[in-house]
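To whoever picks this up:

The parser on our side crashed when reading a file containing two proteins. I've narrowed it down to the boundary between the first structure block and the second sequence. Both blocks are reproduced below exactly, byte for byte. First block:
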Amino acid sequence: MANLNELELQNLRHLIGGHDTVATKLDTYAQQCTDPQIKSMLQNHANSARQTKQQLMTFLG
């Protein structure tokens, strides 16, 4: 892993936080949704955001 400078680290943290926020919001929208197709789409996108967050977090280690 390459060493990150301060700006890269801040940007990475911002991206991680953004994906976390998106996943949480999409989960909330899916819980409130009554259309099964839209509910499934929202859940899939929430899971994708969580996976991307996890991938980004590997750069912190």
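<<boundary where parser fails>>
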Amino acid sequence: MLDDAAARTWSRRGHTPITRVRGRSRRRLSVAALVCYKPGQRSRLVYRPAPDRRTDGRKSFAWTGYQDLVSVVHTQLGGPIVLVWDNLNTHLTAGMKQYIAARDWLTIYQLPACAPQLNPIEGIWPLIRRNLANTAFADPEHPIATIRQELRAIQYRSWLIDIAQAGTGLILTTSPFEPQ
């Protein structure tokens, strides 16, 4: 599930294919994403990209970015959230803990350390990498646009999100907040 995508190409026998690249780019794109499940509704993928153009010099999400993402998901789902996430250091900051403590609609469960196979979002990234294999990007904006396009395509195919969840081996039950 977490392996890199295999890519293939072709050429005449005995001639190694060579791809010419016009320049170098150290552009980076961080993506924070949540896989959302609500009983009786289709699975959802909510994501926020953060290109490397930020003025604060940070190259990844700060805890405030995750706070904004959780708030957006709460608004979209319109109900309490049970959030299961990994032990990323940004998830464990004091500011994030204060944010969580101040929200009665938010319950957090931490995954065990070094257990990415239990995180459904980890099943989404190979789908994106598979579609990016053997792609020669024309400019620094091209990979960013392509990744957004791939994420948007997955959003409309909820069965892919369900497969990523099934790959964890975790079983979804009804929400503890719904009447039985």
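After patching the parser it read the second block fine. Residues 88 and 113 are 9 Å apart (CA to CA). The first strand starts at residue 29 and ends at 36.
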